[in-house]
TrEMBL record, chain A:
Gene source species: Geodermatophilus aquaeductus
Biased composition (Basic residues): 35-45
Residue ranges annotated for the Cytochrome c domain, each copy included: 80-160, 173-251
Protein name (record): Cytochrome bc1 complex cytochrome c subunit
Annotated stretches, region: Disordered: 1-45
From TrEMBL, chain B:
Protein name: Cytochrome bc1 complex cytochrome b subunit
Compartment list: Cell membrane
Species of the source: Geodermatophilus aquaeductus
Alphabetical list of PROSITE patterns matching this protein: CYTB_NTER
Domain Cytochrome b/b6 N-terminal region profile: 18-244
GO molecular function list: metal ion binding; oxidoreductase activity; quinol-cytochrome-c reductase activity
Length: 292, 572
């Protein structure tokens, strides 16, 4: 305490002060030495402060000269796509997903950790940007061009991280194995042939008919809407490719039996037998009746 | 009959001589003549049952072909056939042989699809035929037995369809089989035992396809065949019912002889049914089992439904609340028991007992050979429509996930629509049908009393406008018709009493010259103008001044608006 109150002891006040301190060791060398020590300490301290200040100023000066250049170099080399993505994000996504991808309660989830796979799926299928809040985001024609989607993907990947899109031939897998895996993992919601199906409360598993390879893959990676995530621990990359191969093969396959009538089995068959079969025969017997 | 070459009327043609040879040995001419001369009444709705009969014939023919290739066993094999997406997959031999049947057997897919379409058509036509019987009162004494046989035939057809649906052992039918197994298990007390008896052990075992196969190709078809024969024999013995009409009484049958008219029509209809089934089988894909995949109890697909005729039970299961009953002693009655066994039990019992119930409630124990028009029996008609509404709600609920998906409706909303609709809609249907029946009855009476509206508006000398009505028969002093309602359709348009030019012959395109028909019509005295001299104007509900000449014993030839006594151009 006293040491931090250095120059306050003035000479005229020394008498009474000393008398006050008379019980202390008598004035003489120890006290003078202590004062000198104190003075040198103070001097050192002032020097330190000055040096620090100088250092700071120097650092600041250096920073002010060097930093802008470094910043410019940074943007130019790795994130022009990111910047464009940020612009798109701030224009179309920010109101629900928040300023820093953290999400907005009751509006949109956080995008931290969803990765570019999720961005690709959601934006490329037109699910995002969302038209309105509902049970589920319906797919619609994509709002953004492929280039803009790439920019958004870069932005979200750089700032949130998460699963990335695969590369290579996405149909490079065993067809029969893909079928088995599809029936085991996907058919309970998407139906045997990927026709889709209803889930509870207005949610649904969409038809896979129009989905491209990358959309299916990124959906498995990211688990959009009500779909579970099928990470590489659940289904390896080869297994995912086998499933995609199966889906695309049967989607493109013609129906050997004639009109496919939606490939949903008994419901449309029942409609056909009543609307087509019974109607045609009723027409037949009316005709016969009129020939009495 | 001694055969003498010189007997009068002896056959001279080769065919006649051959027939004589046969008759000499079998003595069939008498009974055959009686049979061939049997008269069948003619109405389009009497052909509905025949559609079912012909579907059954198609089923027997196509089914026989399928048995040549189908192997009803559940032995595991690895598929190595033509269908690439399943190559290398383990499956039962039943499923593998169905795939081979579809892809590697010549005509196999067509025949399999025809078989399946014919099965759907078989049940559908039974249902339509039954509705005709119900709404026209054809089940009344003395035909209750045939009604009972008919209901049993319907139930057997359902079981036959269900076993056939199960046999390919694909993922869809396996899901159905799992539900059948659960239904059997849900029967109180005997459920487990019954399940063990049917499946020969726990689900799914290795026996069920083989067992269903023999039930499907032997047991039920044999019973169906026997009952259909009985159904037809009783029909022939009791004679066919007919609609009331001129010359038709409780004691005669007006119609065409079995040979040649009726036989010609029946053959024609057989070919039409065959054509429709073949067209469906060739053009519309049904039950593409290769897309469903082999059955594996670990797998299931969204939108797994039974064929349409069992869909009402799927619907009742979806609508019924999850009321499991837990009893002491680790014993419970699953909710599944009520919608899948109790409900159809009640429905089919009511269906079976309906003729007896109606007889009891109306006290009508007389024999009836004349049919009733549905409007004349509003209570029965309304009950029928109510039952159909109930059934339809259940059936639609059986596909409610598909409806929800395709029309973007919440599945939960669909379930509640079904639940509420099942209770609310049938009574509404009853009331509406009842009112429509009464309205139609009253309109019949009105036309009989006041005549047909001609659409001709006349202005009377004192300025009043009236519409000219064409009486259907003699009228009393007040201009009211004296014909009583006889249970037959009442003509309500001038065209139905010859008001318009007769139809030009030809079904798709005219086979006679329209102008020639027109000329022919002009030369005849037709239309209002022809009787203008004798006719006084009558209007609905008003006495015609000075009464009406009492010449109108039969419905007038018709009334076309006339101008200056000249026949007008026919209007179409």
């Amino acid at each position: 305490m006293s040491t931090t109150n250095p120059q306050s002891d003035t000479q005229p006040d020394e008498g009474p002060r000393r008398s006050r301190w008379s019980r202390r060791p008598a004035e003489g060398t120890p006290a003078a030495a202590a004062r000198a020590r104190r003075r040198s300490k103070q001097r050192r301290r002032v020097g330190n402060v000055a040096a620090l200040m100088a250092g700071l100023v120097l650092t600041g000066a250096l920073y002010s000269t060097l930093a802008p250049g470094a910043q410019a170099a940074d943007e130019g080399s790795e994130s022009s796509a990111e910047a464009a993505g940020r612009e798109l994000y701030e224009r179309s996504c920010i109101s629900c997903h928040g300023e820093n991808l953290e999400g907005v309660p009751n509006r949109g989830p956080s995008l931290i950790g969803v990765g570019e796979a999720s961005v690709y799926f959601q934006v490329h299928t037109g699910r995002m940007p969302l038209v309105r809040q509902g049970a589920q985001a319906p797919d619609k024609p994509a709002v953004f061009s492929d280039e803009e989607i790439d920019q958004l993907m870069a932005y979200v990947q750089a700032n949130g991280g998460g699963p990335v899109l695969p590369s290579g031939d996405l149909r490079d897998g065993d067809l029969a194995l893909g079928g088995e895996l599809f029936r085991l993992n996907c058919a309970q919601c998407h139906n045997f042939v990927g026709e889709g199906g209803a889930l509870s409360s207005g949610k649904y598993a969409p038809s896979l008919e129009d989905a491209n390879d990358l959309e299916i893959y990124s959906a498995m990676l990211s688990g959009p809407e009500n779909m579970p995530v099928f990470g590489d621990n659940q289904l390896t990359s080869e297994e995912k490719r086998a499933i995609i191969n199966y889906i695309q093969t049967i989607t493109d396959m013609p129906d050997p039996g004639g009109a496919g009538i939606g490939r949903i089995g008994p419901v449309s068959e029942g409609v056909v037998i009543w609307v087509v079969g019974i109607s045609a025969l009723m027409f037949g017997i009316f005709w016969m009746g009129s020939k009495a | 009959m001694a055969r003498t070459a010189t007997a009068p009327g002896a056959p001279k043609t080769a065919l006649g001589k051959a027939a004589l040879e046969v008759d000499d040995r079998l003595i069939v001419a008498g009974p055959l003549r009686r049979t061939l001369n049997k008269v069948f009444p003619d109405h389009w709705s009497f052909l509905l049952g025949e559609i079912a009969l012909y579907s059954f014939i198609i089923l027997l023919l196509t089914g026989t072909y399928l048995t040549f290739f189908f192997q009803a066993a559940m032995t595991e094999v690895t598929y190595d056939g033509s269908y690439a997406p399943l190559r290398g997959v383990d499956m039962s031999i039943a499923y593998a042989s169905t795939l081979d049947l579809s892809f590697d057997v010549r005509g196999g897919l067509l025949i399999r699809q025809m078989h399946h379409w014919a099965a759907l058509l078989f049940v559908a036509s039974i249902v339509v035929h039954m509705m005709r019987i119900f709404f026209t009162g054809a089940f009344r004494r003395p035909r209750e037995t045939n009604w009972l046989i008919g209901v049993v035939l319907l139930v057997l057809a359902l079981v036959e369809g269900m076993t056939g649906y199960t046999m390919p052992d694909d993922l869809l039918s396996g899901t159905g089989l799992r539900i059948i197994s659960a239904i059997i298990l849900s029967i109180p007390v005997i459920g487990t035992w019954a399940h063990w008896a049917v499946f020969g052990g726990d689900y799914v075992g290795e026996l069920i396809v083989g067992r269903f196969y023999i039930v499907h190709v032997l047991l039920i078809p044999a019973i169906l065949l026997g009952l259909i024969a009985l159904h037809l024999l009783i029909l022939v013995k009791q004679k066919h019912t007919q609609f009331p009409g001129p010359g038709r009484t409780e004691h005669n049958v007006v119609g065409n002889r079995l040979f040649p008219t009726f036989a010609g029509k029946a053959t024609g209809l057989l070919l039409v049914v065959f054509g429709v089934v073949a067209a469906l089988g060739g053009l519309v894909q049904i039950n593409p089992v290769w897309l469903w995949g082999p059955y594996n109890p670990a797998q299931v697909s969204a939108a797994s439904q039974p064929d349409w005729y069992v869909m009402f039970l799927d619907g009742s299961t979806r609508l019924f609340p999850a009321w499991d009953i837990y009893l002491p002693g680790n014993y419970n009655i699953p909710a599944l028991f009520w919608p899948t066994l109790v409900l159809p039990g009640i429905l089919f019992t009511l269906l079976l007992a309906y003729p007896m119930l109606e007889r009891k409630l109306t006290g009508d124990t007389a024999s009836h050979h004349l049919l009733q028009r549905p409007r004349d029996v509003p209570v029965r008609t309304s009950l029928g429509v109510m039952a159909i509404t109930f059934y339809l709600v259940l059936m639609l609920s059986g596909g409610n996930d598909v409806i929800a998906d395709k029309f973007d409706i919440s599945l939960n909303a669909m379930t509640w629509i079904g639940r509420i609709g099942l209770l609310i809609l049938p009574p509404i249907a009853y009331v509406i049908t009842y009112r429509i029946c009464l309205g139609l009855q009253q309109h019949d009476r009105e036309v009989l009393e006041h005549g047909i509206e001609t659409g001709v508006i006349r202005r009377l000398p004192h300025g009043e406008f009236i519409e000219v009505h064409q009486p259907l028969g003699p009228v009393d002093a007040h201009g009211h018709g004296e014909l009583a309602y006889g249970g037959a359709p009442v003509p309500k348009k001038m065209n139905q009493v010859g008001g318009a030019r007769r139809a030009i012959r030809g079904f798709f395109s005219p086979i006679e010259e329209p102008t020639a028909v027109e000329l022919e019509q002009r030369s005849e005295e037709r239309g209002l103008s022809s009787a203008e001299a004798q006719r006084e104007l009558t209007s609905s509900g008003r006495p015609a001044e000075g009464g009406r000449p009492a010449e109108g014993g039969r419905p007038s030839e018709g009334g076309r608006p006339s101008e200056g006594g000249r026949p007008q151009e026919p209007r179409d």
